[in-house]
Amino acid sequence: MKSIFFVSVFVLFHTYIFTQSDKSYIREFDKENIELDGNVADGEWKHFFDDGTLHVKGQFKDGKKSGKWYFYYPDGNVKSIGRYEADNEVGDWIYFDEKTGFILKDGQYSDGKMNGQWNYYDERGQYKFAILYEDDSLKEFINDNETKVKTYELKSE
Is residue 107 part of a domain? Predict the structure, then answer.
């Protein structure tokens, strides 16, 4: 019975990953308490695409996402980088374009909610506009028409 449950969760998990945006996927994934062989997950965790390419890398502490997490596109390029505390997104998060590797958006989370200024860039990394959020709610749209290019140096932890 346990194996049927885990297979069902696995199939639903994979179906959900490929049909939702990053944030929706992350939140849905948070709803489940991850278990490995009956024990709550602790330590480094990795998930791979069907072809063996790394999909997600992060840490669990007491069964909850904790520390820096990396999400990858199927081609191996980084999709997003951010931190978790007790399953909630916190601090700086950066999302990258799949083909160019330039930053698409960056901003901060607080207790799993978008807060403060989020900057949005085109596929070449040029600044387009910003949005101010408060607890996931849009508060202000900013379009100062300045051309800025933002890059990020990947440092593996």
Answer: yes
